[in-house]
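Lab meeting minutes (informal)
Scribe: AK
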Amino acid sequence: MSLRERLILGIASSSSAPRGWNAQVRAAMRPEAVEWVSPFELRVTVETAPAYAIDSPETVVVELHPSLLSSQERIVASPALRIAALAGTAALRGPLVHTTERAVQHATRDAAAAAQLALEVEVGGGDDWEPSVGAAGAQTTALFLAGLRSAQDEATGWNAVVQPALSHAHVSAPHNGSVTVRLPQLCASCAGYEISSPETIQLTIPAEALLSKTPIPLAATIAINASAGLLQLGGSLAANATEADLRDAAPRELELRLSGDAWQPRLGQRGYGPTDALLAGLVPTDAQPGGWAAVVKPRLSPSSLRRLDDHTVRLTLPQLASYAIDRPETIHVSVAASAVLSGQPTAAALPLLVGALPGVAAIGGSLAARPEEGLLQSAAGSTLRVRLTADTWVDDLHSPAVFAALAAGVAADTDAARGWNRVVRSALNPSHLLRLDETTIEWRLPQFAGAAAVAVAEPADCAGDPADRVQPSPAPSPRP
């Protein structure tokens, strides 16, 4: 063996990896790679080795054989050559990668749910896990779990509630390049997981947990969406609001109260999109000419809205003298996702109800002009017209329930044997009733044998506003 070959043989790795230094680099070195520089220096040229691949760092030691030295003593060069393995690749898989706050809450209280919400971390690209990952008391396990951190830092979020409860019991041993992480079970008295905005869980696999001893920062993250909050209405408008309240000179307030979520900090600022989105979320079920859509909505502006705290905003309405409705308005209140920290839209469980003012009914027709017993007995018959002001009739007055209520409302103040109640009202049927327009109806009465005094009281369910009973004008009384 030549001296050059003996030198090459002494440049060796302590590892016997099949694609490591000894097998791929040293085996390819030729005596010509050794160059004499001076009595004190040799240069060894190492050619590229495309097949060289290691999954853990390799230490190469240069040991000089005595025959190479004038001292005839063996020398080990210092320092040793440490070759780091290339960083591997890693991927996150499993249902925990994209999940929700409620799913995490359930999984941290129910072991079966936790098993269904697991995270799989797969390592590849020529790297692998240290065998001790997942073992009790192993530093590799502790460091790996410490790498699962949220980019946010809420008081009851991942970093405060979930991460401290993770242990080796929640990490599987490596298998085919993967380890599985399950969520811990929180004790009954422990704080539960609760977030007001989405959380992003990041992972950097530490060098100690990998054979390559090179950390892997993952670009992929775990996304936990916050659950939508609950919205309730409060303030002076929320309870029994009426048309008169909006017309009144005193301002009226509507409070939007969140639970399980929080309003964006800038809500109420002019030029801020979520402010405009929230104001646009108050929508009536129908559009009346003098109602919410026509009168109130154009007056709403960022100056109407004030964020009182994380969970409450107040909408102040000025006097709206032109607000006029002929039937109750139902205002649905929806919250855009951009207006809350959770990023989840929500809506008030109960809408805002605005009652219409009672209308007024005026009596007309031939019977009102000539309220005589003889007119009711005449062969020509008679008419009784009822005209509404500040209200309208429902579309279908002939439906059984509406007609019965309307007929019962045309009543005499006495109950004579041959009077109105027993002779006229008992004979009324839908063919006698005409809806002339939305404010006027007419009873076309046939000939009757006789009738007494008449009183008209239109029931609430016959007028367009089912919440208010129409107030009648004085009824005509047949003259003897």
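Next up, CB showed the second protein from the same session:
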Amino acid sequence: MEIKVIRMSSSFSRYNRQELIRGWDQRRIEKSSVALIGSDLLAGCTSLLLTSLGVGTLEIYDNDLVNIYGKNLFFEADENEPKVEAMERTLKKINPYADISGVNCLPDRHFLAGIIGHPDVIMELTNNTESKKVCLSYGKKLGIPVITGSADDVSGRFYFTRGYDDRSLLLEDYAGKKQGVMPSEILSGVVVENFRKHMAPLSKDEQTIKSMSYNLNSRARFTEAKAGNRANDSDPNVFSKKHATMIGAGALGNFIGIGLALMGVGRLDIIDGDHIEETNLNRQPLFYNSVGQMKAAVLAKRLNKINTDMDARSMARFLDENFEPYFKANKPDIIIDSVDNLSARAIINHYAVEHKIPLVSGGTGPSSGQVMSYIPGKSACLDCRMNVDKEMVEERTVHSCIRDPMPSVVMSNEIVGGIILGEMATTLSPEIYGENVSGIIKYDSSRSNWAGVIGSVEKCDCKRGDVKDWMKEVMEKYKT
């Protein structure tokens, strides 16, 4: 994906970061219309992306009611309120410029045309085969592209079609199953990226893909497979006593945080010293009505509302060599790295190695991203893989996005966030979710094969002492 070179002005639009991408056509996106069928996690995650992206008209159809007890992605809801109405209210706060409507019904063949009309794309994202039949038949009749997708707790699949000619499009393996946040985040990102390529391609050569699968039960992760069969009946409180520390509360941090809350992680410490800017809003959906406030504080507050049993805490500071007392006093079960620079990543890696804490690390670009894990005694640390110590010497300070604008769009952040959640689950509970992969999980929508696992690394025997001594040694070793 190429990058535009433009001169920045003192004022920024909500969509500025995605408009930096060469070939980006925001007007076409703002003129597009989507009929979204469903209100479970797959549809919910997709609605966040479509709203953040700036889709002009979004109509959401379903007839489920809100249960305010437990975990709720759209937390500003009333008991027994139609889910789609709660979604509409929250989504309008996330992007007040979008035309969003929640319709409390699940379309059937008798009155589909009267309520859906002729949107640019229909997205049927329930685990209801009858609803899929109706939407696929309607799309074929009127020539409307249909994206059909389903998920369970550990896997999911989607198809992009212009005609109902294959029973596999009904995704019958998933019928009636509960949708989980890991596959829902990943597939919703893929669904919306496919939609964007269909509606506003960056070039004449850019192509959509016909289908894609994710399965945490498979070592390959992205593979054609039947619905997951390992974790659907697992204890819903499996992570309730786990303590995670997440460094970075930006775009990746938003989606990882949402996932951790919905997965029931008991305690989450969020470390980030940055404040919310208007240009964050196209990819950081939990920061609505909060420009100027600290990212970590706002994120923690809203995650505690998504899951009222969660203890999300904020530390409004950038991670540096002065966090040694924190890691000595609060050794978490896992560290999650969602920062956007290698300097901070080197320090994160040091604390993980020094204190023997598992680490899952992710990074994104406008159309790509990658995830890797460090499990002490089982895999290699980030410095052995990426030479992050040397990079830290060259990139010693954390820059604000405002001072150093870079192109960014929401889809890759949710996809990589979902992948990180999957690897976190395998790290903390391998007896339920299977083994963590030692290779690097790559995503790149500019390639014909969008995602997969590459490489496999041996464990390292790195040891670290005091962080300030290490810092001094590294600066001496790599100084120019």
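CB comment: The domain at 243-478 is CATH 3.40.50.720 (Rossmann fold).
No objections, moving on.
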